[in-house]
Amino acid sequence: MSNILWIIIGMGVVTYLPRLLPMVVLKSKIIPPFVQAVLTNVPYAVLGALIIPSVFIIHTGSLLHITVNDFLFGLIGGGVAFITAFLEWNITWVVLSSIAVLVVYHLFV
Amino acid sequence: MLSYQEADQKPTHLLNKGIKSGIPIAIGYVPIALTFGLIAKTTGLNLADTVGMSLFVYAGAAQFMALQMLAAGTTGVEIVLATFIINIRHFLMTASLSERLHEKSLLKRAFVAYGITDETFSVASLQKGEIKALYMAGLLLMAYGSWVVFSGLGFLIGAALPEVLKSSMSIALYAMFIGLIVPSLKKQRKVIALFSIAAVLSALFSLWLSSGWSIVLATVISCVGVEAMIYRKSKSVVGEKHHE
Fold first, then answer.
1. Domain boundary assignment for chain B
2. B209: helix, coil or strand?
3. A:B CB pairs within 8 Å
4. What distance in Å separates the CA atoms of residue B158 and residue A9, rounded to the nearest whole number?
5. Which residues, in sequence order, are bridge partners of residue A84?
6. Cβ contacts of residue B192 below 8 Å, gap of 6+?
7. How does it sit in the membrane (chain B) (predicted)?
């Protein structure tokens, strides 16, 4: 077997383990209420951490090398998503309208 | 006649609901998977390795990192270790989702676990009510399908998508994340606190740490911190009442 195949298998195993373990171990309901509450909080916090700072550095990848163009790209695309989401549009339309506005923006810049 | 709730639980309905919720993820994965396929080719992988990595690893950030490390001549052990570290955040997400997954069968839970990504987790968690394996299957069909198919297409016809469209489409997943969180931000002050504290910390940590670690740390501190504040407040309220 080639080296790359082993790497893929190894990567697959170490990626699946963190996904699998909590799912089978936490099946029994013996988790203390405080921990349960903390786990319920995860989606809201993780979205904050996933969006910021990444949305402003989509093309450069690091806050240390942030450029005006990249910042504006994220601000406009994210801004359109924020407004359409605030108006409670269906998420697919939120996504498509952000893309559409950025395509138009690209044509002018 | 089925009651509303029973109709809601019908297998085809659950699957369809998952597929529908998966559409924005499928769109969002297109530019990333295409780019992955293209870079994999230039790194020297063949088509089978490229599609195989998307099939068996199914983790965007880790796959890009692996390509970078392969190009730099890093050893396999280091690549696997780095993959583990970058994906530890899924532990947190699966632990949270596990609480809400109404499924007893271990096999089904193991199947659902395979499909957990930043995106599927966010979409599933922010929908109301209990989460069933069939809903997750629909979600996975769209997300996994898009990721695998477009990785292959990226290898074969990587440069086909116009640059303007590809660049603009790179906003898609962030637009989806924003679309998911905003309705909740409108309703609850606790959500605003959780979101903003994690956002500020993640930006701060990203200056020193890799994105995997900064996401995990920011999330944990925000979740525990906000819950601890609420807990202390509720205790002091009880304490004051006790004094009266």
1. 4-171, 188-244
2. coil
3. 284
4. 25
5. none
6. B185
7. Multi-pass membrane protein
User: Strand, helix or coil at B41?
Assistant: helix
Per-residue pLDDT of chain B (244 residues; tens, 9 = 90+): 445 555 567 889 999 999 999 999 999 999 999 999 999 999 999 999 999 999 999 999 999 999 999 999 999 999 999 999 999 999 999 999 998 998 989 999 999 999 999 999 999 999 887 899 999 999 999 999 999 999 999 999 977 788 899 899 999 999 999 999 999 999 999 999 999 999 999 999 999 998 889 999 999 999 999 999 999 988 887 655 555 4
Per the CB < 8 A criterion, the answer to whether B114 and A16 are in contact is yes
If one counts every other C-beta atom within 10 angstroms of the C-beta of residue B130, the result is: 11
Whether chain B has a CB inside 8 Å of the CB on A33: the answer is no
Structure tokens at B203: 């930006």
| Predicted local confidence at residue B7, as pLDDT | 54
Best of B126, B168, B169, B231 to disrupt the A interface (most A CBs within 10 Å) is B168
Distance CA A89, CA A85 (A): 5
Give the residues across from B131 on adjacent strands.
B101
Residue B239 CA from chain centroid, whole number = 41
CA distances from B66 to A4, A8, A55, B151, B164 (A): 10, 9, 23, 15, 27
* 3 state SS of B131: strand
Provide φ and ψ at B131, rounded to 5°.
-110, 130
For position A61, what pLDDT does the model report?
A: 85
Q: Which residue has the tokens 């659950």?
A: B14
Q: What is the pLDDT of residues B155-183, one digit of tens each?
A: 999 777 888 998 999 999 999 999 999 99
Please, which residues have CB within 8 angstroms of residue A50's CB and are 6 or more apart in sequence?
B118, B122, B177, B202, B215
Residue that is written with structure tokens 């670690």 in the block = B213
B201 burial (CB, 10 Å; 0-12 / 13-18 / 19+) is: buried
Q: Residue B120 to residues A79, B138, B208, B237: CA-CA distances in angstroms?
A: 23, 10, 28, 38
Q: Which of A2, A3, A7 to mutate to test the interface with B (most CBs of B within 10 A)?
A: A7
User: Where do the domains of chain A lie?
Assistant: 31-108
C-alpha span between B172 and B178 (Å, rounded) = 10
